[in-house]
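Request from the bench team (R.T.):
"We need a structural guess for the complex before ordering more zinc ion. Sequence and SMILES attached. Just send the tokens back."

Command: build protein-zinc ion structure.
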Amino acid sequence: MYHVRSNEPRFDVPDFTLESNSLTIHTTDAEVGKDFQPPSKIKEGSGHSVTWYELEPLDSSRSKRLRKTIAKELVNKFLLINSERDYILTDFPLGYRLYCHKKGTRVGHDDVRHDFYIYGAGYKFRSANEALFHFAWLMRGMPKRRCICVYDTPITAHKRRQGALNRQYKRAWDAVLQDRHKQHVAAYQASVKDKAPREPSPPTLNVFNDACFLLPE
Ligand SMILES: [Zn+2]
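Reply to R.T.: structure attached below.
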């Protein structure tokens, strides 16, 4: 249980904790001892290029940036905490790791390209957006057949198509904002009518934005 401001939504579930600006996901679908193992060999590609994997350290700026992007989106939009604060995922869920796939002209010279992937539980997430829907599902305790991520979704149009999922997500989020606005207006009008100051509504407990992040039950 945490609360920063008395009227902020609160959560009391075993799947994650939010303390101050740190989000920690406790639930994982990764199996012990089955972590992704990158090929240890340097692979020779076409055009005299070589490719290899490196584990990205948790304290690298790339890792921090990615974990901040994921946490901010999840806290603001999945947990519906309307705050300008920065949030960070303290670590990836157990069994998930960030790798950099490097390509260079020779061993040790990653001068062609870097691609970052979050590996875990058999998934290879290519961006913060790809991962965050699956992580939202972990935070809900992995309800069966409800993960909306592009690897688990039964919606054909979204299968491995993050752009299509992002567009659907944006529409759903816009609807949430419109709804929020309507509620504010209605509450304001009610307070004017009653000539009474508006009482702040009590904080909600364990309320999630499932409409934007999970498939319906
Ligand atoms: Zn998923």
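Two things stood out. The chain has one domain: 16-213. The pocket of zinc ion is lined by residues 134, 137, 147, 149, 151-152 (CB under 6 Å).
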